Amino acid sequence: MIQIPTWKRILIIGVVVLSVLFAAPNFIPKDKQDEILGKLPSWMPHKTVNLGLDLQGGSHILLQVDLASVTKQRSDDIISSLRPILREKKIGYKRLSTITTGGVRVQLRELSDASEVTKAIRAMDSTLSLQTNGDMIEGTFSEAAIKTIQDEVINQSLEIVRRRIDETGTNEPTIQRQGDDRIVVQLPGLDNPQRVKDLLGKTAKLSFHLVNMDVGSSDVKNTGGDMILPMVESPGETLAVNRQAMLTGDMLVAAAYAPDQNGQSAVSFRFNPVGTKKFCQLSKDNVNRLFAIVLDNEIISAPVIREPICGGSGQISGSFTVKEANDLAILLRAGALPAPLAIIEERTVGPSLGADSIEAGKKAAILGLILVFILMIGSYSLFGIFSCIGMLVNLAIVFALLSVMQATLTMPGIAGLILTVCMSVDANVLIYERIREELREGRSAVSAIDNGFRMAFATITDSNLTHIFAAIILFSLGSGAIKGFAVTTIIGTAASFFTALSVVRLMIIYWMGKRKLTTLPV
Amino acid sequence: MWTGIKLIPDHTKIDFIGSRYIGFAVTAIMIVGSIFLLATKGLNYGIDFTGGTLIEISTAKTPDLASLREDLNNLELGDISIQEFGNPNNLLIRVPNQESEDPAVQKAAVDSVKGEIEKAHADVDYRRVEFVGPQVGKELKVKGVVAVLAAMIGIMAYVWFRFEWQFGVAAVVTLAHDVFAVLGFMVIMGRSFDLSSLAALLMVAGFSINDTVVIFDRIREMMRKYRKKPMYEIANLAINDTLSRTVMTSLVTLLSLVALAVFGGEVIRGFTEALLFGFVVGTYSSIYVASALLLYLGLRPALEEKPS
User: Fold this and answer.
1) Chain A CB within 8 Å of residue B84 CB
2) In 3-state terms, what secondary structure has residue A230?
3) Residue A255: closest CA among A332, A358, A337, A340
4) Fewest 10 Å CB contacts: which of A127, A334, B86, B226?
């Protein structure tokens, strides 16, 4: 054992050198980091460990996409377009309703109409799987169809969320899908996420409807083709508008903040060609009528059509503040969310706490290292020094791997790191104690070292593997904080295995050199 | 050549296993006590598991806790708890989740709490605001329990595979012992049990299994070496042989934990406390639970007639 083949020596030294190189950028003081890293040649490693939001300060927001609302909306849409078709074809039905799990149900008066109705439903939505049971026809979304719809919705939501957040100018946001129906948004450095939350809380479904002036605001029940919507400008008041939208927000191509002629905050917008044509025609037919601009089922403005508008651009003026108008423009530019989002978890750490935590972590780590160094050197003299160097190499490997993997270091991660340091010390202690035992039993120095490493190897393997094993399970099952802990534990334990059995051993072997040893400094 | 200080003399012959009944008594009291505390007083679950909003604030002038408590509870938003956090100018305020599913209601509740604080302290610094919805709270609870159980089963499976099934069983009983003891400690301390407490629990399990495996390893080695010796002596030999290692590693770990306790800051205070306690329990249990238990699992005759 006392011999280590040259290629192994080179490999060990190579790993150590690379680790130190890759870990180094993390130890440059923050304020000089950019300057110093900028001067390094491009082949040198530049990456540093990502600090978690709990250390760096920032906001973590978990959003839930209301997927149920999407299938419900789809079912509602099918019903509202099926109704006029049935009427047109003079097909009688007893009941026409949606199914809560997603789908539609028609109960017919005449069984003979069944095939006609199935055909009509199929033409509307081919993803529905249809079943006829007596006079009842049920169209439900198949699991595969629901899955496709949901994937679409999530991907679309991700895109819209990204666009909205980009508009706020937040630095390096992370926006990711989590699980089936969730989106994680991480906003480093943001200590008041209220604006982002406001932007994400709105579906921003915009539509233009004609106002039905015949229905007074006291008629609160939804009558026929109209719906009663509240007016944002005058709380408590409502207007009846056509259920059918004249135009929708997806026909907008641009939206921007622009004060109106009275200097009030407003949002100007432009339609795409289809929208322009449609709006032109409708405004021609409805001069002097009111139309309502509806955002998420609230009327934000209800101007009178004074003349046909064919230029394709328009303006929404309400009683907005500058900020509200700006936010509305952002929402319109980014587009509507396909489903409402709800914030189900939010963690915001202010910069002061984050900085305190880093400071505390640093101090604790340095004090811990110093105490452990004193103990190790006091107990094992020269070999103690070797294991202290091993400990530092261990930390370097962990930081190097975390930097290269661009993993995130959190407070629980630091705890994992401490566990790691203890593990690496433990491996050394096991070896040295074994060497002492072998010496007591009267073995020569060389054979004691040989035996010490060999006998301790099994123990170290067992204890490290149990650790890594448990950590892997934690990683695959745990949530954010626990994952952070698991990652550093896995990397750290693997690294400690390497440092104790290779790096420290190599140091001992170099130290022994060709000397004829009779005693050992342990 | 200077060889360093030996903290534990060579060739100790302490009869650990002989005093196992004292250990069993201590263990029984600890575990029964913990289970009793868990059942009666229960853990003070933090917002990670119950859902709710946690606000950490820091103010320039020291706030009057009693009057702030009164003001906040006059808002009628449920039971709002306020406690000092680290120093008198730092407060931790916990607002329960509101009944309504509507996120706007929760937001309004938090806003009114903030408004109330700002009345007295315009310069308040919101160091941390955490909101966990009821759904997420439930999920984190389930996930946490599953993670701990899975980790324990995984450890048992590994130890079983590497050693013999008796070792696996003893390892898991030991782990369960440590977990319960630490949970009991957490009930006594009354700090909120959140995700970082769970991490502490797992770390304790990690330390403890490490200690246990080291001693088991030595027991196995001794069993191969001395085929005739009764389990009683084997266990004692193994514990004594690894004693200096146990003490050294314990000291190292204690020192790093002390460093964390002194400088680690208030956020991880509960975490460090739990670790310090759990770590001592883990060392104790690898001797008095894990090794002692092996005597009763039929690995070989536990006690042999002493030669007369």
Assistant:
1) no
2) strand
3) A332
4) B226
| CATH class, B17-45+137-294 region | mainly alpha
Query: pLDDT digits over B176-202, tens only?
Result: 999 999 999 999 998 888 888 887 888
- The pLDDT tens digits of the residues spanning B40-85 come to 999 989 888 888 999 999 988 888 888 888 888 888 888 888 888 8
CB of B175 closer than 8 Å to CB of B205: yes
In this complex, do A415 and B199 lie within 8 Å of one another by their Cβ atoms?
A: yes
Q: Is residue A164 part of a domain?
A: no
Radius of gyration of chain A (CA): 34
Say yes or no: B224 contacts chain A, CB-CB below 8 A.
Answer: no
> pTM of the entire structure?
0.80
The secondary structure element, H or E, covering residue A327 is helix A322-334
**Would you say domain B52-132 falls under CATH 3.40.50.410?**
no
- Nearest residue on chain B to A493, judged by CA atoms? B206
Q: How confident is the model at residue B307 (pLDDT cuts 50, 70, 90)?
A: very low
φ, ψ for residue A176, nearest 5 deg: -135, 155
Question: A409 Cβ partners below 8 Å, 6+ apart?
Answer: A49, A50, A51, A52, A55, A402, A484, A488
For A352, nearest residue in chain B (alpha carbons): B127
Residues of B in contact with A350 (CB under 8 A): 125-128
Task: Please state the domain extents for chain B.
Answer: 17-45+137-294, 52-132
Each residue's pLDDT tens digit, A35-81: 777 787 877 888 888 888 888 888 999 999 988 888 888 888 888 78
Is A482 in contact with B214 (Cβ distance < 8 A)? no
Q: Which residue has the tokens 């790691």?
A: A420
